[in-house]
């Protein structure tokens, strides 16, 4: 028995992998693997439609939002977002400040988004916690938003640094109704969200959705049709939406697995039930880290990620010994990102509380031996 704490590609529910294995050579009597099917044939269309409906049910997605399956991952979206939105006009029909977008900088991933978007629009960093090593989400009252930005961009869970928004910011009044755009790659489906508060939500699949290779985008319909002329057609959200995510061949197998994950989530009781479990898992792990002088987590208590828990040993010369001992016990992929060092436990939906308990037991044991 192993527990995989990888930040992504991450552990998938065992039941999903078992079902995929059983269906690998012959999907539902079709005589084909899902990988071999035409993306326009009735078999795959039924898989796609079920996946879309299950996701809509799980996230309670309002009918005026489109759900798109794209490729390129969240990193490609960092360019695709400004390419689709930088030309957006305000509701009065007046141009917004030409090509200005507000970004909130809260860690490595939002920093990357800022850098990439700067190639396509004028970026205003409206708030940043860089000076505090991204140990918190800047308070909404301190954000210096543009009056007429095309959009306001957030990364709502910073996978590397470990800070998460536990609030949905209201930016409309300060920005003349600029839409909120959120990179939710590493916590979508881990907690309830009010989709209607956002204009665009995007994320790579390889944490809480399925395998790498499919990018999820949820977009309010009025935000379609504003792409810059230079935007590639395969990344123009309106073209992709008009073609029901079939403008080019979609990543069919990744969508199929994502669909199995959505079915699994429904069997678990849906997103509200997952959120309750995720809160319990996070409390168990942070609770132990906080009680110990041997380990530390540097994120402000009200901004801590429930999905990605970076932590440090008091003596970092013990890091390799710690990781080797963890591996012996089947606790895998706990090494922190090279940019921040230390350790990181990613505890997405597919991580059961027993896995977090096994990690806490090991933390205790290691501390006793070395402390
Ligand atoms: N944003 C966030 C929050 C992420 O966690 C990641 C991947 N770890 C990315 C963007 C980049 O995703 P991809 O590599 O799929 O493009």
From TrEMBL:
Q: How is the cofactor bound?
A: Binds 1 pyridoxal phosphate per subunit.
The entry describes its oligomerization and partners as: Homodimer.
Q: Where is the Aminotransferase class V domain?
A: 2-359
Q: Which GO terms describe its molecular function?
A: O-phospho-L-serine:2-oxoglutarate aminotransferase activity
Q: What is this protein called?
A: Phosphoserine aminotransferase
Q: Is Amino-acid biosynthesis one of the keywords?
A: yes
Q: So where does L-glutamate get bound?
A: 40
């Amino acid at each position: 028995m192993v527990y995989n704490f990888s930040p992504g590609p991450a552990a998938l529910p065992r039941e999903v992998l078992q079902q995929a294995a059983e269906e690998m050579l012959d999907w539902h009597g079709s005589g084909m693997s899902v990988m071999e099917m035409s993306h326009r044939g009735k078999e795959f269309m039924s898989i796609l439609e079920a996946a879309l409906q299950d996701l809509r049910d799980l996230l309670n997605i309002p009918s005026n939002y489109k759900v798109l399956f794209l490729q390129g991952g969240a990193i490609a979206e960092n360019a695709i977002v400004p390419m689709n939105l930088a030309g957006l006009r305000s509701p009065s029909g007046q141009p917004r400040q030409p090509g200005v977008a507000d970004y909130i900088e809260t860690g490595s991933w939002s920093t990357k988004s800022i850098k990439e978007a700067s190639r396509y629009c004028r970026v205003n960093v409206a708030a940043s916690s860089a000076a505090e090593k991204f140990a918190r989400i800047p308070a909404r009252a301190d954000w210096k938003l543009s009056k007429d930005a095309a959009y306001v961009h957030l990364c709502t869970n910073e996978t590397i640094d470990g800070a998460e928004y536990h609030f949905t910011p209201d930016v409309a009044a300060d920005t003349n109704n600029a839409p909120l755009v959120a990179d939710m790659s590493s916590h979508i489906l881990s907690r309830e969200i009010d989709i209607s508060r956002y204009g665009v939500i995007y994320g790579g699949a390889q944490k809480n959705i399925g395998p790498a290779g499919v990018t999820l985008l949820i977009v309010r319909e009025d935000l379609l049709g504003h792409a810059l002329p230079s935007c590639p057609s395969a990344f123009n959200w309106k073209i992709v939406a008009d073609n029901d995510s079939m403008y080019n061949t979609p990543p069919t197998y990744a969508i199929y697995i994502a669909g199995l994950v959505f079915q699994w989530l429904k069997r678990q009781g849906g997103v509200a039930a997952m959120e309750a479990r995720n809160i319990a898992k996070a409390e168990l792990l942070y609770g132990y880290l906080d009680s110990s002088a041997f380990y530390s987590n540097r994120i402000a208590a009200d901004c801590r990620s429930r999905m990605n828990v970076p932590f440090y040993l008091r003596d970092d010369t013990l890091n390799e010994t710690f990781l080797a001992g963890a591996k012996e016990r089947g606790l895998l992929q706990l090494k922190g990102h090279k940019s921040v060092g230390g350790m990181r436990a990613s505890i997405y939906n597919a991580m059961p509380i027993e896995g977090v308990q096994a990690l806490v037991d090991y933390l205790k044991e290691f501390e006793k031996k070395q402390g």
